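Field log, afternoon session.

UNIT: design team B
ACTIVITY: writing a sequence onto a fixed backbone
BACKBONE:
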């Protein structure tokens, strides 16, 4: 297995491997170590059926259930991310900065995305390293953030008010629900359970509020500071200096660590088709 860094911050290309459910356990351990280290891995020229992708994902951990998005028929652990060429005005699934399902009690550890039919140009995905962002925080700000928790919710994406947005994608079955209004709190600063490194656990889509250190305390001053800090955290954490951008090719498999990244799929391929299969791997509850 050959691992080549793609930026000075995050992302690496992996050559010399064929991903499959039958991979040697030692090779899987190497792959996992590289994934935790580099946060995003690009493995080109792969050919995985939906079942094979799900079984390969099991080598990294158990299945992480996917709320709101219905799976591929006959493949309950696989969701299809697809936008047809005839849907140029449709919302791009994953088209806002987010970390997959961070509103769950125990969000996914890893996501595996396999490109089946992608545009010649456009439809790139961009990731940002929350480890790198954490390491660039001023010390006094880092100390302040130790006392803050984030209020995560799916409301901005999956509440019933968003159903018409999702219904524009004919190849996906996304069912919004009132349950999207439920909230869960996770620490703003967390420790990675495998690497021991500290990172921000933040994304501007699912974090709908902040608590602690005089923020979100019901006062006008607290509400103002909450709004200011939410905006600052989004702009800071997605700054270009923390990012890696991938141009997809058919056959690419990209794996990433949701515990230390957020990502966005770019919607710049009107009139072209884009189809990928996605599986998710369960992770532990975020902890300080």
């Amino acid at each position: 297995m050959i691992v080549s860094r793609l930026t000075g911050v995050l992302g690496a290309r992996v050559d010399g491997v064929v991903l499959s459910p039958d991979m040697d356990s030692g090779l899987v351990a190497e792959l996992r170590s590289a994934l935790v280290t580099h946060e995003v891995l690009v493995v080109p020229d792969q050919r995985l059926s939906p079942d094979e992708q799900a079984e390969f994902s099991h080598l990294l951990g158990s299945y992480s259930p996917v709320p709101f998005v219905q799976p591929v028929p006959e493949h309950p652990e696989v969701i299809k991310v697809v936008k047809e060429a005839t849907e140029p005005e449709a919302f791009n699934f994953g088209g806002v900065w987010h970390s997959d399902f961070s509103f769950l009690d125990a969000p996914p550890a890893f996501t595996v995305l396999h490109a089946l039919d992608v545009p010649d140009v456009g439809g790139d995905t961009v990731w940002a390293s929350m480890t790198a962002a954490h390491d660039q925080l001023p010390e006094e700000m880092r100390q302040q953030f130790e006392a803050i928790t984030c209020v995560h919710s799916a409301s901005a994406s999956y509440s019933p008010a968003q159903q018409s947005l999702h219904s524009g994608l004919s190849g996906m079955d996304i069912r919004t629900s009132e349950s999207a209004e439920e909230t869960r709190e996770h620490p703003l600063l967390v420790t990675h359970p495998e690497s021991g490194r500290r990172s921000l656990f933040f994304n501007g889509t699912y974090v709908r509020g902040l608590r602690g250190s005089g923020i979100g305390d019901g006062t006008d001053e607290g509400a103002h500071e909450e709004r200011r800090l939410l905006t600052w955290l989004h702009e800071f954490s997605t700054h270009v200096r923390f990012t890696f951008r991938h141009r997809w090719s058919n056959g690419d498999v990209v794996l990433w660590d949701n515990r230390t990244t957020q990502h966005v799929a770019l919607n710049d391929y009107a009139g072209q088709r884009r189809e990928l299969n996605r599986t998710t791997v369960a992770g532990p509850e975020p902890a300080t």
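LOG NOTE: Helices lie at 25-38, 50-58, 130-135, 139-145, 155-158, 163-166, 220-237.
NEXT ACTIVITY: expression trials, pending approval
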